[in-house]
User: Fold this.
Amino acid sequence: MHLQGIEKVTLTALDLETARKFYTDWGLTLTHQSDAHLLFETLNGCQVSVHESLDPHLPAGIEKDPTLREITWCVKDAQTLEHFASKLSHLESFEKHPDTVKCKDPSGLSIAITVTQKRDLKLQSAITNSWDQRQRINQPSPIYERATPVEVGHVVLFVADLAQCSSFYQEFLGFTVSDTYPNRGHFLRCTPNGGHHDLFMLELPEKRVGLNHIAFTVRDLHEVFGGGMHMSRCGWKTELGPGKHPVSSAIFWYFHAPTGALVEYYADEDELTPEWVAREITPGPTMFAEWAIKGGIDGHTRRQIEAQAPTGQFMTDMPKK
Ligand SMILES: [Fe+2]
Assistant:
């Protein structure tokens, strides 16, 4: 029995109007609005809940606001929820609610688990013609004027004790290690058959705890480009992208978010099975990005804004086994 993925992320914002504008431009649908709360959803019904920082009903933060206050993971049915309830029940932080169980991870981040309300979707994505596979016939590839994210695909956290946190997610929540930066970072997926990672945890020398980014899955790499250029036209600031991760193979684009840290559009990540053998990879800037455009592409000129060379070893420089 496994978690299926992310059902909801609960975030804080210092200014809800800025957050409303940002996530509307990001391509989410606003489904509820009050003075202290905004609720958005992605195409498949995955939720992004944004609260005023002082909301007393929120779980405690693990760093200064604005940031992530809770991740809600989903299961397919009540029986699987009961399975996780019994696994977590002896934890001091365990809470059982009518449709949800909760606990805290070793960083103190609130973790909720609930039966999924996400919808199955039939979406048309880009078809690629490669040398030996000509599948797009008499049909141009898509151009997106803006993105409409399918769901929240993964979250990246800074943790103070990587070994302890990684063990917790494996032992209590059934995660599998996809790849590691030894003693530095673990890429974890919640199902043995699935996308490369649902959770990446990174331990920094200064042991900072907090949110690094929240990643939204879009249909294909063309939607990463179209979505990013729309955000740029709307005046939002790129941190890095578009670019490509050598680990996971995903095409990405990161923006600074008013709910803390970064948000990412990504597409085309590796799909793994139990046969996948986790790699130990030496971290570095060119392991993070095989290539990337610093500062982004200007959505009006549709050309790059700035550029700066990285240093370090490229993944293709690694010794062959
Ligand atoms: Fe990411």
About this structure: The pocket of fe (ii) ion is lined by residues 154, 156, 213, 215, 264, 266 (CB under 6 Å). The chain has one domain: 5-119+147-317.
